[in-house]
Design goal:
The chain is α/β, with parallel strands linked by helices and 251 residues long. It is built from 10 helices and 10 strands.
Length: 251
């Protein structure tokens, strides 16, 4: 059971006592410890490579054209776990630095797990973690090996802002985002919680913005706030903001 280590650390005799303590909100640190223990922090760099390539290629190309006057792009990596997803984005922008020169690129990453966020902010990964999905060339260019760990370059770490947030809660007032990534998280929620999350994401997505879900996730039958994009599998837009021919990607 995932909570057994929590019981031992806090000298709690059994799960019923733990449940009572949580329900009575007796200990914020205990509640956070339970959250960290129950979460699935599975992630990797450039996860779901085919879909990620669509994002960093054609999807970003279309948004580059649509935002050419403002020269500003805001991206939210929701449920970012230990940071591989937003850092993959930051590396992708660095790899195309000439194309994005003079642009203000803001990458916000959030998660409910304090322990995951702590590692994400450090940008420090084991050999196994850094090799999962990371091409060797990029690993050598953007990481420095220190003993058995790999540390991400400071300039790449500074491109991502990490914040604690529970997606099921009220959407934070962080302004509108052009791209929201919420991958491999909604699939673990019940229907009521899913609708709450979709409502929150809709509130924070720009009218012609793009939502990216996990490869095994969909909005079909889940919400009336989003519809699938006709061009790119795994990408969605807000209902009522479909753009020309039903797609915000078309000019």
């Amino acid at each position: 059971m995932a909570l057994k280590p929590v019981l031992r650390r806090h000298s709690i005799p059994d799960i019923s006592v733990l449940s009572e303590l949580i329900q009575n909100a007796c200990d914020a640190a205990l509640e956070q410890d339970c959250i960290d223990a129950m979460l699935n922090n599975e992630t990797s760099f450039f996860r779901d490579q085919a879909n990620f390539a669509l994002l960093t290629g054609p999807v970003l190309d279309a948004l580059h054209a649509r935002r050419s006057q403002q020269r500003r792009l805001r991206i939210w990596s929701a449920a970012c776990s230990t940071g591989q997803e937003p850092y993959s984005l930051a590396i992708s922008f660095a790899e195309n630095n000439e194309k994005w020169a003079g642009w203000l690129i803001e990458i916000v990453a959030s998660d409910i797990s304090m322990s995951a966020l702590a590692q994400a902010k450090l940008g420090k990964y084991s050999q196994f973690e850094v090799q999962r999905g990371m091409p060797v060339r990029l690993m050598l260019n953007y990481f420095e090996q220190k003993d058995d760990e790999w540390l991400l370059r400071d300039d790449i770490r500074r491109k991502v802002s990490f914040r604690k947030h529970d997606l099921v809660d009220t959407s934070p007032n962080w302004g509108a985002f052009d791209i929201i990534l919420c991958r491999n998280m909604i699939m673990y929620l019940g229907q009521g919680a899913r609708e709450s999350v979709f409502t929150a994401l809709s509130a924070r997505l720009a009218p012609d913005g793009v939502l990216m879900l996990g490869a095994a996730e969909t909005v079909i039958g889940q919400t009336e706030r989003f519809a699938a994009n006709a061009e790119f599998r795994g990408f969605y837009q807000k209902i009522g903001n479909m753009g020309n021919k039903g797609s915000p990607f078309l000019p």
